[in-house]
Amino acid sequence: MSLFVVITLYFCSWALAFPDIPTSIRTREEQPNTFRPICPKVFVIGMFTDEGEAWYGIPEFNVLANNITVPGISPLFPQVHCTSDDDVCQVTTGEGEINAAITISSIAYSSLFDLRHTYFLIAGVAGVNPKVSTIGAVTFARYAIQVSLQYEIDAREKPQDWNTGYFPQGSSLPTDYPSELYGTEVFEVNQQLQEIAISFAQTATLNDTADARSYRALYASTQSFAPGAQGPTIMACDTATSDAYFTGGLLGDAFENTTSLFTNGSGVYCTTQQEDNATLEALLRAAATGLVDFSRIIIMRTASDFDRPYANQSILNNLLDEFQGFGPSIENIYLAGVKVIEGILHGWLNRFEAGIKANNYVGDIFGTLGGTPDFGPGSIFVDGKAKVQKRGLRDKKRLRRRQTLSSDS
Questions:
Q1: What are residue 157's phi and psi, to 5 degrees?
Q2: How large a percentage of the chain has pLDDT more than 90?
Q3: Pairing state of beta strands 186-188 and 385-386?
Q4: Domains in the chain, CATH or no CATH each
Q5: C-alpha radius of gyration, the chain, whole number
Q6: Cβ(257)–Cβ(288) under 8 Å?
């Protein structure tokens, strides 16, 4: 067999194995005149199998009617699923920050989609702080905080007067604001849209189980955990992102402090998950090039387990018992989330197509999309250009201090 024939057979077999790739990697300008990108009104983002399957086989709509293979998204979940009219699409990113970032970036930059008017519903489960809420609850966040993006000392070696081994980068105390920022530490989404989403979700009847009620009751003996002992509700509170799946009172309290510190006292540490800041950074970069509207993001997390043990429970038992409220949390993704989706679809023409104007700051800690963040040291941009490298703040402060000491001497 000649080399030419071998090469020809190879490329033919490759094309048959991946029939969607040639079309999907074209730019919009290169698409044939008959091509029309998918323009979903709502795009639902889940992170693992159970979160994705919460939307399959439901009576309201069928997201499995149109299945689109998208290069670059998770090899475990290689397709975006859409309704026949393309009004609702759903994707499962894979767990963790890297999976979330790459999947969402691949979709945002794919020529298969036009997402400029799309609402994004992040819909997944999370750990929950019993000081604020409980298992089975449905939470909607205004802030997402990347709590693990800090310096870390093993707790066995931390200074004796510290209650945590985590402290902000570029600082010397857990109470100092970081002087080194990467830009993904905090995101703020549209508070007006958050409130609308909550009002839609509040029309749902949440799922609960006897097992979840029994587990909640174990938290009643600790006064500060009273919210954790109550039944599930729908509420506004904020979410913490960490690739490491953590548990315990010390870490919970440390990240409660981080949430408050990084948001200048505005954020309430409530849920913890592994993806949201990565998803938001991918969407923010797409928004900076006009591909998505960052003010159309809803962060919904349902609580599946407590982030710390009840009185006299071992820390290991709390960590390994992941099914404290897992069943209700998965059910409530759908029960609350479908009300949000239906509310947007039903009010599309007279309310949502034009967008919901935010009265709060919307964006990242750098001020990348314009405006002045109401947390952190303020925007790094002047006239659309970055004037200060945030990682250099520490060195600039040290230089000013040395100059001051020199002049005083």
A1: -120, 5
A2: 80
A3: unpaired
A4: 39-408 (3.40.50.1580)
A5: 23
A6: no
